[in-house]
Design goal:
With 430 residues, this protein is α/β, with parallel strands linked by helices. The chain is built from 17 helices and 14 strands. α1 runs antiparallel to α12 and α13 packs parallel to α17. It starts with 8 loop residues before the first helix and ends with a helix. The mean pLDDT is 95. Pyridoxal-5'-phosphate binds next to α4 and α5.
Length: 430
């Protein structure tokens, strides 16, 4: 099919990037389980290696099954290109790699997936990169954190763990003024609920492990490029604007224009860092994307019902779901996530740490796991698991206080989820 702006989201999530297999007519996208591809002749091989012709060389760089998924996610996000990789964390490194170097920094929201906080506060230091964390509701603090060495701003559209909504329009105005890209992790929202590029994002990253695949089967990640950033506009991004020694002095921005970042991601990023998505994973994620809107509508509907019930329960202290009218983030839902506030939120239980531990033990439908964005409803008590090494002050700052549990609402019957929470809350408060 030819992808045009005339097709709606539900059509694109099924068809974008895919067509019947030219070799066999297979209607579903085959899993191209191959490492390498035969060159037509020596000239063809030379043209491919010079980036003069686009084609398949070796599956660390490109694979036809993965390519379909890349085009599908780019289309759903409204980007010009995408690079898939082995996990969401790989996607974050792939997004930062062309922008960064020793001594350079990023400014990131303090409300992020726990693993991202660790990656940005600890691991990237080994590359000589650093991260300043600030409250993204305090726009003056975001501006003040940017200095001459800042190369990107990073946040989540629907932010962990509370399901808060980030004002992407306000943040992208700041990144535009500073002449640096805004990178938005759209994992918790998905392109069905939020399209960050329409709110000024330069790059969108995903953990496809979550809602895009949808059922907890494979890990994967993706970096989508809006194609809107001119990497030559200032001297901050030499990897994209200056001659690349590994390709006879080719300049990515000059040669590939809006596709500069995507070509760099494949030709340098995947080639040299090797964080490649395998075709099996792409296959599972392609199947997941076909039902994305159906699942997200149900996640949202269920989250609204369950959060509304919890809010009125005397055993619960507060619920952070932005879809509730009582949420301070409720006004941003219509602007940033017009189809709903997602399926992720936290609740605080009146009985504190002990009641939370009893609650997660007593639940029967909800699974106690370190994951989100599954068809199954999931819960985690961060203070006794992922955040247990932190002090109570650090736990509170991360939104993982001892009395708080994070919930990822699945697509089961909302009434069954409520009944399960009801019986478990009874046990937790006895
Ligand atoms: C899970 C997750 C990640 C990391 O993704 P992996 O696929 O587990 O590497 C990053 N950001 C968010 C918001 C996530 O939920």
């Amino acid at each position: 099919m030819t992808d045009g702006p005339t097709y709606g989201f539900d059509t694109l999530q099924v068809h974008a990037g895919a067509k019947p297999d030219p070799a066999t007519g297979a209607r579903n996208t085959p899993i191209y389980q191959t490492t390498a591809y035969v060159f037509r002749d020596a000239d063809h091989a030379a043209a491919l290696f010079n980036l003069q012709e686009v084609g398949f060389i070796y599956s660390r760089l490109t694979n036809p099954t993965v390519a379909v998924l890349q085009e599908r996610i780019a289309t759903l996000e409204g980007g010009v290109g995408a690079v898939c990789c082995s996990s969401g964390h790989a996607a974050q490194i792939m997004a930062l790699f062309p922008l960064m170097g020793p001594g350079l920094n990023i400014v990131a929201s303090s409300r992020l997936y726990g693993g991202t906080i660790t990656q940005f506060s600890q691991t990237i230091k080994r590359f000589g990169w650093s991260c300043t964390f600030v409250d993204f509701d305090d726009l003056d603090a975001v501006k003040a954190a940017i200095d001459d060495n800042t190369r990107a701003i990073f946040c989540e559209a629907i932010a962990n763990p509370g399901g808060y909504i980030t004002d992407l329009d306000a943040i992208s105005a700041i990144s535009d003024d500073a002449g640096i890209p805004l990178i938005v992790d759209n994992t918790s929202a998905t392109p069905y609920l939020c399209r960050p590029i329409e709110h000024g994002a330069t790059l969108v990253v995903h953990s496809t492990t979550k809602y895009l695949t949808g059922n907890g089967t494979v890990t994967g990640g993706c970096v989508v490029d809006s194609g809107k950033f001119d990497w030559s506009a200032n001297d901050k991004f030499p990897s994209l604007s200056q001659p690349e020694p590994a390709y006879h002095g080719l300049k990515f921005q000059e040669t590939f224009g809006p596709l500069a970042f995507t070509f760099h991601g494949i030709a340098i990023g995947l080639r040299d860092l090797g964080m490649t998505m395998n075709p099996q994973a792409a296959h599972y994620t392609l199947m997941g994307t076909e039902t994305l809107s159906l699942r997200m509508d149900r996640h949202v509907l269920n989250a609204e019902k369950v959060a509304g019930w919890l809010e009125n329960d005397p055993r619960v202290d507060y619920v952070t779901y932005a879809g509730l009218k009582s949420s301070p983030y409720h006004d941003r839902v219509a602007k940033i996530c017009p189809r709903g506030a997602g399926g992720l939120f936290t609740i605080a239980i009146k009985g504190g740490y002990d009641a939370c531990v009893k609650l997660v033990n007593a639940l029967e439908i909800f699974s106690h796991v370190a994951n989100l964005g599954d068809t199954r409803s999931l819960i985690i008590h961060s203070a006794s698991t992922t955040h247990r090494q932190l002090t109570i002050e650090q736990q509170r700052a991360a939104g993982a206080a001892p009395e708080v549990v994070r919930i990822s609402i699945g697509i089961e019957d909302a009434d069954d989820l409520i009944a399960d929470l009801d019986q478990a809350l009874a046990k937790a408060s006895s």
